[in-house]
Design brief:
This protein is an alpha+beta fold. It contains seven helices and seven strands; from the N terminus they run αββαααβββαββαα. Strands 2-1-5-4-3 form a five-stranded antiparallel beta sheet, sandwiched between helices. A hairpin with a 4-residue loop joins strand 1 and strand 2. The protein is elongated.
Amino acid sequence: ERRAAERERDALTAQLQQVQESTTDAILSIDRNWCITYVNRAAKKILEPMDDLVGREFWSVFPSAAHESSILFEHCMKAMNEAIASEFETDYASPLNIWVRVHVRPSREGIVLFFRDVTEEKAATLLLQHTMDALRLSEEELRWTIDLSPQVTWTADADGKITDFSDRWLQLTGSTRDEAMG
């Protein structure tokens, strides 16, 4: 019975390890002494610039996060000391120079960090925001140009439907803004 239980335990351990190694999320396990006890394949890939992490003290590996004002420090402490799970995004400078989305989960032995590199997603979001800001500025400039022009001004789309016009155009046509639009 003992051997059967050991075989079952070994099979479950192997299955768990397979899941941890095949997930796209990076996983770090940290014990109550802040020692890194496990690093999966995805974490090794993201943390490649750093040397072997297993057995090292977590805060010595991530020294820029080892202060009370660090979001990583705050969430790790809450998970470790108060068993509060959380998630957040943060950037990590040299040597990684990446943005990560982090899930911190308390465990019986300490905490587990699940994280993924979201640098490209962040860059795309920032580019989109920059583009939207530029478009809004362009639209504001067009509006000012139309409103300040001494001419009767209007714009239309490719189908000839009116999309914008000056107050002078409204005065000339006697239309309301709602009547004239489109």
